[in-house]
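Work Package 4 report. The design task specified in the project plan requires that, given a folded chain encoded as structure tokens, an amino acid be chosen for each position. We show below one input record used in the internal validation round.
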């Protein structure tokens, strides 16, 4: 059974394009399906840059796709805002 792969996508088209390029390689070469998780950045953080860390306070969780178990084995993202969410997911999954 292939691993669960999540793609964290946010508001930066260039960042999302890089994630999608990696996703195509994962799908085409490894045959692993990818699940896209869209993050909606809160208005006050669209320009401001939050400190990178284990955090989701800069994301509108109600407007974003659900981030809940079962957690992914592989997570692909890029950029400051979604990378902080990736760290939060790692913490929620107990390092899985």
């Amino acid at each position: 059974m292939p691993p669960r792969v999540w793609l964290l996508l946010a508001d930066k088209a260039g960042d999302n394009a890089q994630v999608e390029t990696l996703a195509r390689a994962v799908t085409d070469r490894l045959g692993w399906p990818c699940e896209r998780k869209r993050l909606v950045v809160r208005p006050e953080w669209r320009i401001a840059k939050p400190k990178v860390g284990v955090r989701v306070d800069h994301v509108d969780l109600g407007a974003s796709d659900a981030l809940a178990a079962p957690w992914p084995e592989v997570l692909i993202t890029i950029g400051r805002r979604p990378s902080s969410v990736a760290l939060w997911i790692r913490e929620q999954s107990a390092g899985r």
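Strands lie at 5-9, 34-38, 74-76. Validation will be extended to a larger panel in the next phase.
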